[in-house]
Amino acid sequence: METITIELKNSKALKLIEDLEALSLVRIVREPKTVKGKKLSERLAGAISSKEASDIDTELEQIRSEWKSSI
C-alpha cells in the first residue's frame, strides 16, 4: 500500500475521492491542519502603518461613543 498527498482544487474532487472510499478502493486519512512557519500575529505584523492603525482606533472610539449615547 502506498500513501500519497493530494491537493484538491475543486470541491467536486473531494466528492469523487469519497466515492472511491465508499467503494473500498481508497481510504481517506485526514491529518490536522498545521500552520507552517510563523504565528498569525507575526505574519500580519506591519500589515498596516501606524498612521492607519491610529485612524482606525480613532474611528472605533467615535463609533463606540455613538452607541453609548443612543442607548
Structure description:
The protein has three helices and no strands. The model has no long low-confidence stretch (mean pLDDT 87). It starts with 10 loop residues before the first helix and ends with a helix. It is mainly α. The longest helix is centred in the last third of the chain and has 21 residues. The radius of gyration is 24 Å and the shape is elongated.
State the main characteristics.
71 residues, mainly alpha, 3 helices, 0% strand, elongated, Antitoxin
Tally of DSSP β-strands: 0
Overall pLDDT metric: 87
Number of helices: 3
The structure class reads mainly alpha
Protein name: Antitoxin
Organism: Imperialibacter roseus
Q: Which SSEs are present, and which pair or pack?
A:
Layout: H1 11-22, H2 40-44, H3 50-70
Write a brief caption for the model.
The protein has 71 residues and is mainly alpha-helical.
